[in-house]
Amino acid sequence: MAERFEIVEKALGKMLEEKKYAALRDILLVMNPSDIAALFSDLEEQRLPLLFRLLPKELAAESFVEMEPDAQEVLIRSFSDNELKEIVDELYVDDAADLVEEMPANVVKRILKQADPEMRRSINQILRYPEYSAGSIMTTEYVSLRPKMTVEEAILRIRRQGVDKETIYTCYVTAPDRKLLGLVSVKDLLLATDDETLIEDIMLTNLIYVNTQTDQEEVAKMLSKYNFLALPVVDGEERMVGIVTFDDAMDVIEEETTEDIELMGGMLPSEKTYLKSTAFDLFKNRIPWLMLLMVSSTFTGLIITSFEGALAAQVALTAFIPMLMGTGGNSGSQSSVTVIRALSLDELRFADIWRVIWKELRTSVLCGVALALVCFVKIWLIDRMLMGNEDITLMVNAVVCLALAVTVVIAKIVGGVLPLAAKALGADPAVMASPFITTIVDAVSLLVYFLFAKALLGV
């Protein structure tokens, strides 16, 4: 698929250079808006408005929504007032609100100036809700029906209003005061046995909905769980104010997943794509965690310094420090990633902490024993016999293997518990991932190692 797109991109670039605009337009007309947006993102700024103007109004608006904010800003600055009005009129309210949020103040003024009064009111309504809430990602464009309508009247209303609505597959039944009463699908209307059947007789009243203040991640999870195309959004008095559609939920899931991956990698979340980020942007996102982890590793240095005598007496112990720290860090990371995923899917709560500890304890004992046995054989056959290191005695081998087993147990329990603790404190569990867990486990593994050495070797 990527190769095909690259071929099309090169062909269009050549046609643009040769000024074959009619042929270019014919190709663009059969392309998906998302592909057009991706194609336009690689264009030079001076060529972008020219190629964009080849698109018909509706396709232009759909492609515009899919573009990166930088490309959108370039186009808006090149638009005349009439061109901008045509684009804004074609946008759904939630897309227009997203656009306004992304643009600088002088561009926002132009956008709002070209929007009709109803659009401006809807945009301002959405922008009033807290960021990352259901209200901030909803659209106010939905089909509402009345309970006393007949099926025939409902279908007629959908035909008249549906063109300007984001989705018509699910229609919501509301009272005159906008109180949400039920929902009915277009399928229900089409399959009704009688055109005179009342909507209240076929509507579903066991409703699942969210409040305007509900977190957007929770909304996305509900849409995924119930396989809805849209989810109604109500205010504090259960009056319907909008819907969140599945495409917006997919954007939220992608955004939240990206944020978690960046946090798990020891970085601050970025609002730009990798190629759009400057070196300084990446520096700002990465350096805080690197600084914190560097300072926190001071504890590791202090532990090694405290046991310099033990290392001097048994030099062979030094060779196994990287293996212990690496295995401990990997063990903790496995548990933390598993628990973080379970938390993100609502499979775990803080109340399950003892179940997590018990499960990780049993798992870690099995892993620790298996690793210790393999490590014992490896040290004895390879490090001592094959490499001829006579300093590795049976007791030194026992110290390394016992420390390895205990480190794995501690690391897995720590890795399982810390994300739960973060969740309970209101922090993102993804913060307690690889870099943070590894730093803690490194210090613990060294402490365990040297305590075993002191107890069994008397150093």
Outline the structure in words.
The strands form 2 sheets. A 3-stranded mixed sheet has the order 1-2-3. The protein starts with a helix and ends with a helix. By secondary structure, the protein is mainly alpha-helical. It is elongated and about 90 Å long. The mean pLDDT is 84. Helix content is 66%, strand content 6%. 33% of the residues are buried.
Sum up the overall morphology in one term. elongated
What's the Cα radius of gyration?
30 Å
Strand content: 5-15%
Low-confidence stretches: none
Mean pLDDT: 84
Total beta-strand segments: 6
Helix content: 55-70%
Strand order of the largest sheet: 1-2-3
Compute the separation of the termini in Å: 63 Å
Largest sheet: 3 strands, mixed
Q: How does the helix and strand content classify structurally?
A: mainly alpha
Q: What is the H-and-E element order?
A: HHHHHHHHHHHEHEEHHEHEEHHHHHHHH
Number of helices: 23
